């Protein structure tokens, strides 16, 4: 299995200048390759192969006065920029032919030097290495200091150097490692994600929603106002833009840290985890869009997925159309309607339910049914037919 390990870099001023040159050269090669293919397509010529494109925009371009400065950076960085372009084209063609699932992919676009995020990649051919002193040695850049938070489990196959919008530098290592086994446990849990509580577990526990963006809105507002008052193109505007980016980075870092800690605890404590397959993109088009984005459900479920695969746990995603809130976890009867303002309700069988805990219990039962039913039989409780006047939406409407 392949995993990424990210570490903070602290390059010297000279190394920052060398990295800026590498970022620019990679961007120019990417744009030259894209322009060459677009010109060939407009002229009715055949699609330029990856090898021919590399010869034109790298090998031959280095011999011209206009692109002679490409020799100042590692050739692997330039090759990887073209590799990204080739991958973008393959994804675009696969999307056109229907081989790629999901929404349609747009053709590659030109990269701008004003993009807040810059990245370059070094593979083993570049002969990067971690020195005995704990620094990252990059060709034609030097030994960059690294803030190591943990050891790498094996030798990395590649490293991506990233500069984010806040001006921070990171090294992202790709490491091949085997799965780690955790002690087996008989505990299974269902998770109901929400906004009032970030997660409600089937055992009755409720995890509060931290609302990182809401808590930082005042600071973000002041930073945005200060940015809007600066003259466009001025040095002060650039400084104000960095302050805004740093404020947003603090929010994103806090949200990521919360999701990492919670997902790790859930995976370690439970052998199987059941969670709803929420349509975050659809919910982000409603009046609750800001709160949905602030919750970060997609990031949290993605962490659950890869950590379950890494540690030998089971993650089951329940169909988003499963009526977990309306279904009685005791007798299986479905209520006719369940508005959002109803937080507790009683079933005709006499069972009293907390809406979220009941939904988590139903998610757990549905996940167990999907795991244990190998014959394809129907093991879930039957669902009552919706009334004719009940509001709803078509599946494709979201």
Largest sheet: 7 strands, antiparallel
As an assembly, this protein is single chain
> Which residues sit in consecutive blocks of at least 5 with pLDDT less than 50?
374-398
> What is the number of beta strands?
14
Distance linking N and C termini:
34 Å
The geometry reads as: elongated
Instruction: Note the total helix count.
Output: 10
Structural class: alpha+beta
Q: Radius of gyration, rounded?
A: 26 Å
Helix content: 25-40%
Order of helices and strands: EHHHEEEEEEEEEHHHEHHHEEEH
Q: Mean pLDDT, rounded to whole units?
A: 89
Instruction: Provide the β-strand percentage band.
Output: 15-25%
Strand order of the largest sheet: 2-6-7-1-5-4-3
């Amino acid at each position: 299995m392949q995993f990424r390990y990210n570490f903070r870099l602290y390059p010297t001023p000279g190394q920052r200048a060398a990295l800026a040159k590498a970022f620019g050269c990679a961007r120019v090669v990417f744009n030259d390759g894209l322009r060459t293919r677009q010109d060939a397509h407009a002229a009715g010529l055949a699609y330029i192969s990856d090898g021919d494109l590399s010869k034109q925009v790298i090998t031959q371009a280095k011999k011209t006065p206009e692109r002679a400065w490409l020799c100042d950076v590692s050739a692997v960085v330039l090759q990887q920029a073209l590799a990204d372009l080739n991958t973008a084209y393959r994804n675009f063609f696969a999307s056109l032919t229907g081989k790629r699932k999901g929404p349609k992919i747009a053709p590659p676009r030109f990269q701008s030097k004003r993009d807040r995020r810059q990245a370059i990649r070094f593979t083993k051919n570049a002969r990067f290495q971690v020195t005995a002193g704990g620094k990252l040695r990059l060709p034609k850049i030097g030994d960059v200091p690294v803030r190591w938070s943990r050891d790498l489990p094996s030798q990395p196959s590649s490293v991506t150097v990233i500069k984010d919008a806040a001006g921070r530098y990171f090294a992202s290592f790709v490491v091949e490692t085997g799965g780690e086994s955790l002690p087996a446990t008989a505990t299974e849990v269902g998770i109901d994600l929400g906004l009032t509580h970030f997660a409600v577990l089937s055992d009755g526990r409720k995890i509060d929603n931290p609302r990182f963006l809401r808590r930082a809105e005042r600071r973000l507002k002041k930073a945005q106002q200060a940015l809007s008052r600066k003259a466009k193109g001025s040095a002060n505007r650039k400084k104000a833009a960095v302050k805004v980016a740093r404020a947003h980075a603090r929010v994103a870092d806090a949200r990521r840290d919360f999701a990492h800690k919670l997902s790790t605890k859930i995976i370690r404590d439970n052998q199987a985890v059941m969670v709803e397959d929420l349509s975050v993109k659809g919910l982000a088009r409603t009046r609750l869009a800001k709160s949905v984005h602030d919750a970060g459900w997609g990031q949290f479920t993605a962490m659950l997925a890869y950590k379950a695969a890494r540690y030998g746990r089971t993650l089951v995603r329940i169909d988003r159309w499963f009526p977990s809130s309306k279904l009685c976890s005791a007798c299986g009867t479905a209520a006719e309607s369940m508005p959002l303002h109803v937080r507790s309700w009683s079933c005709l069988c006499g069972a009293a339910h907390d809406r979220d805990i009941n939904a988590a219990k139903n998610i757990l039962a549905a996940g167990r049914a999907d795991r244990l039913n190998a014959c394809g039989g129907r093991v879930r409780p039957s669902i009552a037919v919706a009334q004719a006047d009940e509001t709803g939406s078509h599946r494709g409407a979201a």
